[in-house]
Amino acid sequence: MNPRLQLAMALVRQTSVEIRRAFEQRSHVLHEKSANDFATETDQRIEAEIADAIASGFPGDVLLGEEGGERVLGNQPASDVRWIVDPLDGTYNFVHGFPYIATSIAIEVGGVVQCGVIGNPLTGEIFSAELGLGAWKHLANGAAPERLSVSNCPSLSRALVGTVLPSGAHPSFDAVLPAWTAIARASGSVRRTGAAALDLAQVAAGVMDGFFVMSLAAWDAAAGALLVREAGGRVCDFNGGDEFLRTNQVIAGNDAVVSAMIPLLQPYSSREKSDKT
Asked: Starting from the edge strand earliest in sequence, which strands make up the sheet with 189-192, in order?
């Protein structure tokens, strides 16, 4: 196994224990980053632990983390390896005791995501992928890993689709609603779970049939996108292209569902808007 992937999986497994314990205690110190966007001491501590482990094992690697931004780790010149980390996706769920949270780690080499790991701290499940080698689910009981495959849902009208919506107080809320409405009307059902990284893992596992979001940071998209692709699915931006990590607009799912969502979401593409201004 790729040694960096091995470390990422070990870190997710290790930090899951801490996150689960903190979740059960339900006592959190909140730090408001912006309107209705919070971090807890757990988010910050877990990212620091991940950073320390990477610095020790692979000094010179770069970390892009939700809590600490981008920095070179260890006392070495920067390498071409970048770790893209969300230590705790679903912080709002975590604070309220809603059991749907994740840790997400992607490993990018020379600008290409090579490895992805998403852990569910509350179940102990870990989802992993390596470019060209498939996507897998690892159970907490140590059973043999299960190979992931996206669903065979034949149409958007029958699809269960995940999404992310900003809070009503967020400036982008009104702009997001038309895209959400378009998919809600065309799909079987839409879920807003509050942890996009875990949604993408569920798409890779064939639990959700599709996923879309108007704005998703790289630390929530990078690992999950690799999982979906390695599970036989498709990931693209709102124009059907490959710029989703740049535009932050993501569509994911099996080919039938994604193909049906693209024309519905293309009018809301950030590239479409910039072309018209």
From this structure: 189-192, 160-163, 210-213, 250-253, 234-236
